[in-house]
Amino acid sequence: MAYPYTHEKEVRLLSRGWGDPAARTLAGARAMGGYEGLAKALELGREKVIEEVKASGLRGRGGAGFPTGMKWSFMPKEKRGPHYLCCNADESEPGTFKDRELLRWTPHQLIEGCLIAAYAIQAEHAYLYCRGEFFEANQVLARAVAEAYEAGLAGEKILGSGITIDLTVHQGAGAYICGEETALMNSLEGRRGLPRVKPPFPAAAGLFNRPTTINNVETLCAVPHIIKNGGAWYRQWGSEKSPGTKLFCVSGHVVRPGNYELPLGFPLQELIYDVCGGFREGRRLKAVIPGGSSVPIMSEAECLDCSLDYEGVAAKGSMLGCASVIVMDDSTNIVKQVRRMVDFYAHESCGQCTPCREGTTWLSRILVRIETGRGTEEDLQTLLDLGKQMTGTTICVLSDSAAAPVASSIQKFRDDYLALIRQGEAVGAA
Amino acid sequence: MDAPKPQAVTLTIDEREVTVPKGTTILRAAESIGIEIPRYCYHPGLSSPAQCRICLVEVVGAPKLAASCVTEAMEGQQVRTQSEPALEMRRGVLEFYLANHPLDCPICDQSGECKLQDYVHAEGREHGRSREPKRVFGRDDFGGDVLFYGDRCVMCTRCVRFMNEMAQDPRLAVVERGNRSIIDTFFDEGVEGSPYSGNIVDICPVGALVSKDFLHKARAWDLEHTPSVCPNCSQGCNIEIHTRDNLVQRLKPRDNPEVNQYWMCDYGRARYEWLNRGDRIEAPLIRTGERDARAAASWEEAIRAAAAELGGAEGPVRAVASAFVSNEALVALATLVEALGGGEIVFRSPRTVGEIPLPGFEKLARREDLAPNREGAEALGMKRVGTNDATGGLESLAAHAGKLVVLGDELEDAGPEFGAEAAAYLYLGSYPTEGAGRAKVVLPITTFAEEEGSFTNHARIVQRYEPALQAPGMARPAATVLEALRAALGTPAGALAGRRGS
Ligand SMILES: Cc1cc2nc3c(=O)[nH]c(=O)nc-3n(C[C@H](O)[C@H](O)[C@H](O)COP(=O)(O)O)c2cc1C
Ligand code: SF4
Ligand code: SF4
Ligand code: SF4
Ligand code: FES
Predict the structure, then answer these.
(1) Which letter, b or e, does each residue of A347-371 get, where b requires 16 or more Cβ atoms within 10 Å of its Cβ?
(2) Pocket-forming residues, ligand 1, beta carbon under 6 Å
(3) What is the phi/psi pair of residue B347, to 5°?
(4) Which residues pair with A80 in a beta bridge?
(5) Atom nearest to B70 CA in ligand 5
């Protein structure tokens, strides 16, 4: 197949059409069973659709892993006005590049997922908030939406039913924070992309102050398959608490980086050494960030018998997040990598919360000092203290995300920090 | 349908039990029992974005600290504002502020009433740990009376929210993101011409927004604060007069949920210079010769002379009052006129065209009536005469042949022959004026800022004010002077009792 990276251990459920230009079209999507799930959903009725998603155990793929069926069931049963669905296609977590592929290769799979979800939560309008920099994905998605309207799959009376569901593709303007669900809603409303204080939660008062559900692209893409084949069927992969398949975006120093769709619970070792081909000659594993840049870093020892599901990674003190596995070999300067990630958060902090607005930049500046040989051992304690003050004290978790790699890297790679500090001291003394 | 019953919740805050209506935030509940939780972004008159994060408190059993400004008080909750986790996080937030805040307190206008200084002093760390150079934003002229010192801003967004929510004239915004965030104006004119923009200076918790008028004038701790009422229109905004060296330095709004909430208009705020005028009538004056020849006298002599003049004269009595004097003075004048046999009392007061409401609290408007006590005068049956710039209307009085009493009106348009025909002419005022030239006795009275008294506002709310300045020379409150005069005339007090408040 044309798609660059594949492996026989993959279970290509969501990624089945990747690399095949035909999959982008309605006809191609239909040839692969597309929109059968939607038809079945309309037959089943809302309650059963939600039950089936609950039964599948599907957990949100946007990072937090919250059970999708349960999230849908938080929407008010009784309707007093419009409900909304937002598809979070703003993917910008460093190390994450899976939603983009779903958008540009299998847009109809996503549209179908959106329609089923909108139907289930009684939304008459689904907004697809797509990262603006995804030029190709935006074009592909826009074409697919037009096709869906033409074919009577979206808009008024979908598939001849009495149900109306509109789809709107909205292009983001390049702010990471707009991926945070409440900032996304503000942005859709035409305001600054600032996270909102919760409560109220979106299911009570979301977009335009109406009940709203926000789901990630990958989450919604799994839905048509679950509805078509049943929740129990989906559980043939993964573990009791983390069922199904997952797209792993592997980046960093492995020989074959890329997107791999694997059952949840897949061993990290196997992913690195078998699926991704291990390291370049003479190099060995140093560290892994398993869930995108916002989760604690793992040492080599912690990677040994780590299974890639929500519980398995948590047991190692980190988080599966959106399963963006960043692999670093022993040529890596951890301080530099961490500083780069912190720079990213400092740049992207929306600036509302003091600990985040001031803390992210401060962390970065201390890290720069250490990196350039002007740090002291005291700085390490300051970094840890600042990280603690930035965790659990803000409106959204961007602040926590910036602190996580700093704290964990100091705990696990203290020697890297100390080496730079000693070097600097030596130069200073000379 | 029944009205929803107000439900109450009982909780403990720092071991003290408190019962508050359901929906009250922890911050307000704490405040109700005298516990102040630090805050920057929270302001009772604005929405709560819960972004400064300095109001964090510990709620026993909760996984995270709670932002008390938006967290509802719950039944049975135990809140700790002084526990180690709460104090540690607040110390942390303060440390974050100080990472970039320039400690230019010695030159900062807010020095002495700065919430950053206060909180750091109360519970901050002893030493800041930031070794990095501070961020530099510089200054900006925000238009109107407002200057912006970007480096001192703590990004509480109160100013932005005031312009959006109360003024409903969104001329300020946060631009940029993260650490680069800064408050800015959309256009060159900034807040120029937005009639309530002075309030953003009041609500800025630090010295980031300062008043050009007040800049470098005085240190906050050198100012005396006196509760008062704005004398510049009939709204009667509750204010504080801030004085130093017996001069008014500025006017600031004082909370009154009914009248002006937390706000006042720029028009009222800017008009205090007249209270600092140096050209005052400082002693009672008795005319000695035909025209302007006058001699200073003691109060005793002056009252005696005035009583003799009025008591001995023939003809009906007529009086001119002012809508800028207190209810007490107006009542005393009416009583005196009654005692002299009764007669018409008129007043003149300036009016402008159109009211300027505050869109977010429309009960507050800069009123058309620019005098603070027109209601008070009218309630006593006094009649407004003249034009909207407070001139004219006194033609029939100018040549009145009976007894004539003028209280407070400066008679700017009256000319030196005013009262020339009067059998007795008594003038009570604060400033020297040509129109008093023919008066037999001139009595110096205090301005509202130098006395205790009350005004009745446009909605008939009677509001008291207190003396903020020492009166110059021998000036005394008009009410006292008129009472003394009435007593000297030998008429009983309370002659007007039946007419009061009608
Ligand atoms: C700073 C920040 C950025 C985020 N960015 C994304 C994103 O780009 N895409 C995404 O799906 N979720 C993102 N999330 C998570 C969303 O807030 C939300 O949890 C998710 O979209 C819910 O979808 P799910 O239940 O299907 O996982 C972000 C969260 C935070 C705090
Ligand atoms: S934590 Fe950071 S990004 Fe999130 S709302 Fe606060 S300032 Fe904005
Ligand atoms: S200028 Fe003052 S009121 Fe405005 S955001 Fe800054 S600190 Fe707050
Ligand atoms: S509205 Fe009237 S009373 Fe209030 S501040 Fe302005 S002038 Fe003074
Ligand atoms: S006062 Fe509560 S967060 Fe600012």
Answers:
(1) bbbbbbbbbbbbbbbbbbbbbbbbb
(2) A 60-64, 66, 71, 88, 90-93, 176-177, 179-181, 214-216, 219, 396-398
(3) -145, 160
(4) none
(5) 2
Q: Strand A307-308 to strand A266-267: parallel, antiparallel, or no bridges (unpaired)?
A: antiparallel
Give Cβ neighbours of residue A343 (< 8 Å, ≥ 6 apart).
A364
Determine which of A127-136, A309-318, B94-103, B486-495 has the lowest per-residue pLDDT on average: B486-495
- A51, amino acid identity: E
Give the mean model confidence (pLDDT) for residues B341-364. 97
What's the distance, Cα to Cα, between the start and end of chain A in Å? 60
The answer on pLDDT for B126 being more than 90 is no
Over residues A225-249, the pLDDT tens digits come to: 999 999 999 999 999 999 999 999 9
Residue B377's nearest CA partner among B319, B449, B435 is: B319
Q: Which two tokens stand for residue A224?
A: 């048509």
Q: From start to end of B246-378, where are the E strands?
A: 247-253, 285-287, 294-296, 317-322, 345-348, 356-358, 361-366
Q: Answer left, alpha or beta for residue B68, where phi above 0 means left and psi between -120 and 50 means alpha.
A: alpha
Q: How far is A42 from chain B (nearest CA, A)?
A: 40
The answer, yes or no, to whether the previous bond of A200 is cis (omega within 30 of 0) is: yes
- The confidence score (pLDDT) of residue B127 equals 87
pLDDT per position as a tens digit, A40-71: 999 999 999 999 999 999 999 999 999 999 99
The tokens describing A213, both together, are: 């559900």
> Closest partner residue to B178 among A192, A357, A395, by Cβ?
A357
Among B87, B89, B96, the strongest candidate for a mutation testing the A interface, having the largest count of A CBs within 10 A, is B96
For residue B269, report the distance from its CA to the centre of ligand 3, in Å: 20
Question: Percent of chain A having pLDDT more than 90?
Answer: 97
pLDDT at B500 > cutoff 70: no
CA A355, A358, A363, A366: dihedral to nearest 10 degrees? -140
What is the distance between the alpha carbons of residues A343 and A363, in angstroms, rounded to a whole number? Answer: 9
Secondary structure string (H, E, C) spanning A99-114: HHHHHHHCHHHHHHHH
Token pair, residue B374, equals 């027109």
Query: What is the C-alpha separation between A316 and A329, in angstroms, rounded?
Result: 19
DSSP calls for A311-365: HHHHHTTS--TT-EEEEEETT--HHHHHHHHHHHHHHH--S-SHHHHHHHHHHHH
For the entire predicted model, the pTM comes to: 0.94
Q: Which of A349, A359, A366 sits opposite B177 (nearest CB)?
A: A349
C-alpha span between B475 and B430 (Å, rounded): 8
Tokens of A103: 């958008």
Is there a contact between A10 and A260 (Cβ–Cβ < 8 Å)?
yes
What average pLDDT does range A206-228 have in this prediction?
98
CA distances, A250 to each of A302, A388, B235 (Å)? 18, 29, 68
- Residue A347: name the closest of A293, A391, A414 by CA: A293
Instruction: Give the tokens for residue A24.
Output: 């982008």
- Per-residue confidence band for B495, with pLDDT thresholds at 50, 70 and 90: very low
Q: How many residues does chain B have?
A: 502
Per-residue pLDDT band at B4 (split at 50, 70, 90) = low
The reply to whether omega before A199 is within 30° of 0 (cis) is yes
CA–CA dist B154, B198 (Å, integer): 19
CB contact under 8 A, B49 and A361: no
